[in-house]
Structures are given as C-alpha cells and as structure tokens.
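User: Could you check the structure of this?
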Amino acid sequence: MVKLFIRLALLCVVLSGCSYSVYSNAYPHLKKVAVRAFENRSADYDLGDKLLNGLSQEFANDGRLKLVTQQPDCTLEGSINSFEENIYSYDAANNVQDYQLRLVCSVTFTDLINNQVIWENKALQVTCNYAVSEGSTAQFNSKEEATDELISLLFKAIIQNTLETW
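Assistant: Sure, the predicted structure tokens are below.
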C-alpha cells in the first residue's frame, strides 16, 4: 500500500511539474505571423497552394507564432523559383528505382514591428527522394509524400534561421 501511495505521489509530481520545451524564440516580441502566398514560377501549377497550406499548417503545429491574416507582427513571403523531379537511382536491371524532388525558393522573413528583414535567402534549396520500385531505401513511396516532406524541410530551414537562437 505504501509503495502504491509513493508511486501515485510521484506521478502527481511529474504531471503537475513545470513543462519544459526545447523551442526557443530569438525574437520574443514576435507573437503573430502571416504566411503570404508564394509566387509560383514552377511548371507545377498547384504547388503554390500546397506550399501555402503546408507552411501555414506547420506554423500552427509549431505554436511559437500564432497564424493570422491581419495585423501580424511578422510575415513570411517568397517565391517558388523551381521544382524539379529527376531520376536519382537505378536498380541492377537498369530500371528507375528512385526519383529526387528538388525545391528552390526565395524566402523573406520580416519583422514588421521593427521594420527589418530578419532573414532572407534567395536560393533556399531542399531535396527529398521517393521510391518507384522494390528494393529502394527511400523513405517515401510517392511524389505526394515527398512533396509534403519538402514543405516540412522548408519550414524547418526557415525556423532554424529565424526564430531559433542555437
């Protein structure tokens, strides 16, 4: 009975303790972000919408900045410079095994409170492979999955270069 009481007490302490987050924000005055539609210079006509929706969802999931459309503290905007799909590898029978997607964007993250560009990269590149045949070691099995991962990688690159101090 005593052991049960000690375990319950320990559980209560753990559950009621301070929460710790590894998220940081180098700009604590920034609370709200507006993600603007990226100009799409690629041949994939719906990529701009996918990117806007995906980045918006990533910001909502991350939680450091509240996603808004009006009166933001900062904005994320840019353009899709290119989106390419190239053969990445062949199998032993010389059949295509993997493709690689490559997304190149121009990105600007602006602090509207201090009226300054926090970070800008005119050629931010992210890549992801996907499998089209058996025996591949690629993590993704479709172009759609790989495109979603590209958007996630783009978001991570933006966050690492803007909000994170380490």
